[in-house]
Structures are given as structure tokens and as C-alpha cells.
Specification:
Largest sheet: 10 strands, antiparallel
Number of domains: 1
Strand content: 15-25%
Order of helices and strands: EHHEEEHEEHEHHEEHHHHEEEHE
Strand order of the largest sheet: 8-9-11-10-5-6-4-3-2-13
Oligomer: single chain
Radius of gyration: 21 Å
Number of strands: 13
Length: about 400
Amino acid sequence: MSSPYPRKVITPHRPIPIEIPKGVTPTEFYNSPCNLRHLARENGLLRTDEGFLLYRKAFGHSNLFDTSIIFDTSAKVLDPMGRPVRRDQLSRKENLTFSRMTGVVFQYMLEKYPDPEEHLVFCGEASLDATWPINKPGVPSIRMIHNHFMVFEKALIASSSAAAEDDPNLTDSGHNGIFLSYLSDIYLRFLEILDLKVLRPISQDDGRLSLTGYPQGLPSWEVVGGTAELGKGQFWKEYDMVLSGFLEFYRAFFNLVASGDTKIPAGSAYADQIEDILLYSDQFHQAARILRLQVIEDPMFANEIRWQPAYKQLLYRDDRGRLIVTISQNSVGNAITELLGIVVKRISDAGAYARVEKNLVDQLLELRNRLISYNLGSALSTPSWPNGRFVPFETTG
């Protein structure tokens, strides 16, 4: 097999039937409560009592299978800075519903696409820093927690051209390079403190995809017991622990970058380890100094820093069929696909999208029925599925 390298996948979409008001930039509109209402009307599949919205991605990453769950608080919480952006900001009931929905969708994908040699199956939960400037590029879910579910044909990935290795999405605009070069070992050592039973740490190279060579330099854990564990509370408890450990590391590091502050953040769950493993590490301080100097000297770079915790946490099936969990810092708005070495270029091509839309929508409606049967939400009607059946775009009014 040839050497792995990141790939650029071309994904067509149909034009979005929406007009952006004059005087408003596309990004400003996409982040507005008005657009979230439009998203639900045009692409909404299901909504729960808590406000979780399952929807078809208008600009999808994969047209084989692609859907997302967002915690749509846009009408309830008008201040975008006040909306939940991480799982640790959810109530117990909200977290339980979100975890159950994630498990049901992932199980569905594994059933529909059972062969790890043929299909890459994964989901990625993204939190985007609530202090990120509203005029930066992004998605409608920019200030709300969401999870994105995708399946790619491996043959499509294999036939795709190489992505540029310095693509900003692959490099996290410099952050990833600093983590890889200076923080990878200490990051892994710090996360060894987690008391895990279902998640088993694996080496950095063990979970890499043979086609892309990604993930790179990230802590990863195998789900011992596989698919069956997704229906148990212990897995989701440990999934939350991975996030908790990441947040502790992130806060300690960016406090050091921001002000040289070696204070242990208030309420830390791992205060002793922050001091022992992180604050006494010369490499930890060296990486903070490099980032700090770059922020001071480069205004463009400074504007892209996320000072509050922002992450991408993935659950994916590797080449051997194992379920793997990994987590990374987030930057600039890059999609979760890039953590697996896949850069998606979306192009407007109504004809190409029409050829695959029915198969995609039929799966999403089948998934919706399963969620409803498990008491996870109520169906929504849209022009593309007014009565729970697909209607081609051309025939809609």
C-alpha cells in the first residue's frame, strides 16, 4: 500500500433556497435565530422536548449518509454568549437525551454500513468558543453544542486527490503544530489520570486510518466491548470523563498563554495532576511561551485564538472495525472530518445532488422513525418530506 496522505473529497449540494437580507453578511445571518428557524423548516427531521434538533445538513460533507443533532436554544436564549456550547454545560436530563440520541444514530450507521473495509463511519461533537467573533466564518450551530454524523465510502476517499498538507483546516492554523511538537507527550500523560474501564488507551499510531494517516498526535481510546457499550451508561460516563480531562488541560494551558498565570483553575477536578504533570513541565511552559509570543507579534493569529475551551470529540470505526474515541482542541471552524485527514470541498451541483438525495433522505427518515419509537422526539415536516416521504426538490412549491 502506498503511503497515507490527507485527501480532498468533493461533495455536491443543491442551491439553498434562502435570501440573505441586505446589510447582513452571510455569516451573521447564518448565526441568527431567524436562520435557525429556516433550518428547521427546510431540513428539520425531529425535535425533542429539550430542544435537540435532528436535521439534514444543507451543505453536507457526505451525500452517502450525513446528519446532525444540534441543541437549538436560539429562540430560548437570544444572547448567543449565553447558549450551551459544551456537554458539561448541559443538565443531567439534557445530557442523557443527547447521549441516547448519539448512541441510536451511531448504531444505525453501523447496521447500515457494517464493513470497515468499505465504509468509514464516525461522528464528531464540536464545541465552538462562545467568545469567537460573530463575523468569523462558521456554521449556524456556532454557539450551540452539536454532533455531526457521517459515512464515507473508502473507495471515494482512496480515489480523491491529495489535500494540501498546510491546509489551515488540517493544521488548526498553527495550534496543532504546537501541540504535536511540544505538548503531545505531556497531553497523553495528563490524560492517563482518567479512571477508565470501558475506554482503553491505545498508542498514537494504532488508530490511524491507512488511507490518510490520521488522526495525528491525539490521545485515543478503544471502546472495549465495541458496539454493545453504546447502549450502556458507563460508556457515556467515560466519554464525559475524556472531555473533562481535556477541559482541565485546555484551561491550564491557555491561562498560561494569556497571562503567565500558574494558578490552578477554580473547581478543577484534577488539581494535583495539573500542578504535578503540567505546571512543573518545562515543555508545557515552552509551548505556552511560543504561542504567547506569536499572539503578541501576529494580529491575524491573535484574532483566531480561542481563549475559552473549544473541542472536537470523535467516535469513529477504524480499519480493524474497532470503535475509537479521540479528542482535539478546535480552531478556526474546521470540520471534524479534518481530524481524520479528510478535507471536504463542497460545490453547488443540483443535478449531482438530485441523484443521491432520495437515498440519503430515505435513510434519515428511517432513522427518525427509530428515534421516535424510542421516545426521542417528534417528527417535523419540510418541503422535502411533507408527510414522512421524500419529495424531489423540483416538485416542491
